[in-house]
Specification:
Length: 271
């Protein structure tokens, strides 16, 4: 379910991107194989994460409530603007009465207040790695997906969210908005465990588990029980070293915090 770019330069924004698979227990594809992948984008250099500024990983999947007036007024879809169109039409009809009866003025005012309320907490952003999808809440409580997206976002009775794809894969998010289960169309389930907001383990039904360790709020190592990869950071919180399962290190140099300017691989550690 996670898509990473292959071209290092984004054609639309000109941003530099970089991705790497660090540890991959299991065989086949996700969810049978639990590949831990990192992705960097220079356009996200001001966004901090457990891997440092500009970085994200594929098991970081969230559903967060947000307010977006532009979306609520139909920036991406006319369906998103249903509340705005209904309120504008109703208020227009009420205020065209030349006698301006007080009851109509009150109703129009209440309608405008209602519309304003529709623009508060009216979107849910589902983020996977550095990619985000904006779902807009409609007056009936359902969510309209982004253009070209057939996935469904469902608000459950306990206030949590479920994300269903057209291929019948589903993700459930806990009360904090973090993914806690993924299930594919065949019933294979992946479970996500947390300590506070930090992801501590990812496991599937094939006896594959990834365990995450943290130092000062940053991921310091990831292990599958037999193999371990490690991460190091500078004083600014930039990810500066990655050490693979063979104890070979890749280092990253930065111009500004979050802005990668150099990558040194184990085969050429200084050039």
């Amino acid at each position: 379910p996670f898509n990473f770019v292959a071209d290092p330069i984004g054609l639309a924004a000109g941003n530099f991107t970089y991705s790497r698979d660090d540890l991959s227990p299991g065989v086949g594809l996700f969810p049978q194989r639990l590949t831990f992948s990192r992705i960097y984008s220079s356009s996200a250099k001001n966004q901090d994460s457990v891997l440092g500024k500009g970085w994200a990983h594929n098991f970081s999947v969230t559903a967060k409530v947000n307010s977006d007036g532009y979306q609520g007024m139909g920036e991406d879809s006319a369906l998103d603007a249903v509340a705005a169109l209904v309120e504008m039409k109703a208020s227009s009809d009420l205020l065209t009465d030349a006698s301006h009866p007080i009851e109509k003025l009150v109703i129009a005012t209440l309608g405008q207040r209602w519309f304003g309320d529709q623009l508060i907490n009216n979107t849910v952003i589902v983020t996977q790695g550095l990619n985000g999808e904006v779902f807009v809440k409609l007056p009936d409580g359902s969510f309209n997906p982004p253009p070209g997206n057939s996935s469904k976002l469902i608000l459950n009775g306990d206030g949590t969210y479920t994300y269903d794809t057209v291929h019948h894969n589903s993700m459930h998010f806990n009360s904090s908005g973090n993914i806690d289960t993924y299930k594919d169309a065949n019933g294979t389930q992946v479970n996500y465990s947390y300590t506070g907001s930090n992801l501590t383990s990812v496991s599937n039904g094939f006896w594959r588990t990834l365990n995450f360790s943290y130092t000062n709020g940053r991921i310091s190592q990831v292990s599958d029980g037999a193999r371990t990869v490690q991460y190091g950071y500078d004083a600014n919180g930039n990810l500066t070293t990655f050490t693979d399962t063979l104890s070979k290190s890749t280092t990253y140099g930065y111009g500004l915090p979050g802005q990668i300017t150099q990558i040194f691989y184990p085969s050429f550690p200084s050039t």
